[in-house]
Amino acid sequence: MHRQIAGRLTGPVTKWVVLVGAIILVGIMAPLNSKLIDVQNNEASSWLPQSAESTKVVEELTGTVDPNDIPTLVVYHRDSGLTAGDLAAMDEDAKEIEKITGVTAQGAFSPNEAKALQATGAKVPALLSEDGKVAFVAFTFNFGQNGWQDIPDAAKEVRALSTIDGVDVHLAGFGGQASDAAEAFEGIDTNLIFITLFVVIIILLFTYRSPVLWVLPIISAGFAYMISGGVVYLLAKYADLTVNGQSQSILGILVIGAGTDYALLLIARYREELRRHEDRHEAMAFALHRAAPAILASAATVVIGMLCLVFADLNSTAGLGPVLAVGVGVTFLIMVTLLPALLVIFGRWMFWPKRPAFGSPEPTGAGLWARVGTAITPRPRMIWVATTGILLIACLGLFKLDPSGLSTEETYTKKFDSIQGQSLLVDHGLSDTSNTVQVVANSDRISDVEASLAGVEGLGAPTQVKDVGDGRSYFEATVGADISSTQAFDIVEATRDAVHKVSGANALVGGGSAFYLDTKIASERDNKVIIPIVLVVVFLILVLLLRALLAPLILMGTVVLSFGAALGISTLLFTEVFTRLSIFESNDGFAHADPGFPLFTFVFLVALGIDYNIFLMTRVREETMTHGTRKGSLIALSSTGGVITSAGLVLAATFLVLGSLPLVFLAQLGVAVALGVLLDTMIVRSVLVTAINLDLGGKIWWPSKLDREPEIVSTDA
């Protein structure tokens, strides 16, 4: 039945129907894909669950504090000390800033204005450092829901007018950080894709050794990317799916990487069948019939693994799951419909200069991976035990992993303007007035709540209490630390401990640092919940696919071991190697990692790493029917070794492209996933799994009937 379906998809007439249908679909979806950046939501507050304390504060303050407010600072620095003329120029800058579209009615606040208000006894923070070298002007942007799109242009206006001879000027605070984040993701919908496609094309040229064959997988991957992006756009616009710059960047990488992997597997099987069948339509029918189940199992594993992320508390993580699941699902459909149609349409000449002629011998039987299998055969147990030991040693690098979070300065791999401004504030003892705790409590106990904070170190003086209705009031206090640093988290936790002890106050603490702290808490919870779910789900898929229990358990163990080794090695690379070699402009973030880094790495490596074992073991099971497990394992290794290695190189290279974005989290994720994929393809699948298969023989299929049948072993097994 499968062969009949495959034949109908790639028949002399239906191949053209499939091609026309794909062109029409991409014509509809491509314009929507280009608008995906318009529905991104990169605000940290929108990522948090409703149960987070900082989210509850936002809800209570909605009528009083606009959640779209973006506090912004212009930081001025003269190493010899700011002059009276400099301060007067800042007064003028403040007046000009007030005229910029998007600046709120409260206007801009300059150091001289702050000093005048302090003289009247008002509670106003200092905007000029004690050493007189650094000062800042404070104001607030508000663009409604379009903050992410509008702030880059507004930031350019502020930078253009805030210039003083001999003075270094930086845009900092929330506004500066948002502007820099927009710059970090600028062109993500095109530049990253082009870089990825270029890398994949180079690898395909070396893999196929054909100047033309690579075109068809790339065209198919491009179609898959544009269609999946269009679907994600519709879900974000009409189904409230959270999409951000991070998920969009990973979507493109995953679609192209996974799509190329599926193409490599299908084309390799098609090339085999072209040697057995004179008619290319018949060859494709057999190839698709044989390869599609493995590709489907691989895609299903990734899709279901990614959908497990919907159980995350963190909305950004929960939203990432459906985004990537859509991408892989669409990619699978394209690679088993459009790509086969294109291959049949263009015929054998696409393999030029080494076209697979009908009746020609299959070269994989005497290739590199056939020799690897032969080398493993005499002592398989010793080899898998030694390989396991080496991977366990690599896991020791995990002791250097510190996923406690990244400060603002540690977030990027280059020194952005806002980071330089933030550093100046910290170095010269000024508080970032854009970073505050927001305390909400019952009005009749608000004074007691305010008094409870007197002993909290690092917290500034409370502002004037404001009424927010329904018997509730609130005030703010500046946090004397970087917004996403562990020091800021300690201050928030101390603040929460203090106000929660006030009986009958029902006090809540939110604000910028509280958002990041709650994000960390949600990420740590997600690590504990989602990782076991993914393991169980992937195990069940393998059980259904291989119709056994022992083989899936072994495969899961090898992938988890590969994950630990990849995470350990990548941690050592960032903390001990990249920092010392100054590979990136900023090396401040390499001692720490984002709390979500282990989870993201785990999900990608388990979902993607298991792919290669699926490709191998489905072929082992197929060959076992005729040759027995041990001989079947050697045939499977020699037949799939080249294509799986190429697929691993493609996927590793595509994830490494994430390092081109100036974000520490994506750089760490790209390196860890790339390492894990290479370990899976070069060591785990080719050496470890094959050695275990050769050692255990038919026992790996326990308790299926295949295990109980006498193994057929040829004389050269």
Provide key terms for this protein:
elongated; Alpha-Beta Plaits; Multidrug efflux transporter AcrB transmembrane fold; 4 domains; 4-stranded antiparallel sheet; 3-stranded antiparallel sheet; disordered C terminus; alpha+beta
Helix and strand arrangement:
Blueprint: H1 2-9, H2 14-34, H3 53-61, E1 69-77, H4 84-97, H5 111-119, E2 134-142, H6 147-161, E3 168-172, H7 173-184, H8 191-208, H9 215-238, H10 245-276, H11 280-307, H12 315-335, H13 338-346, H14 368-376, H15 380-394, H16 408-411, H17 417-427, E4 436-442, H18 446-451, E5 466-469, E6 472-478, H19 486-500, E7 508-511, H20 512-546, H21 550-581, H22 597-627, H23 629-656, H24 664-696, H25 705-708
Antiparallel strand pairs: 1-2, 1-3, 4-6, 4-7, 5-6
Helix pairs in contact: 1-11, 2-9, 2-13, 6-7, 7-17, 8-10, 8-23, 9-10, 9-12, 9-13, 10-11, 10-12, 10-23, 11-12, 11-20, 11-22, 14-23, 14-24, 15-21, 15-24, 19-20, 20-21, 20-22, 21-22, 21-24, 22-23, 22-24, 23-24
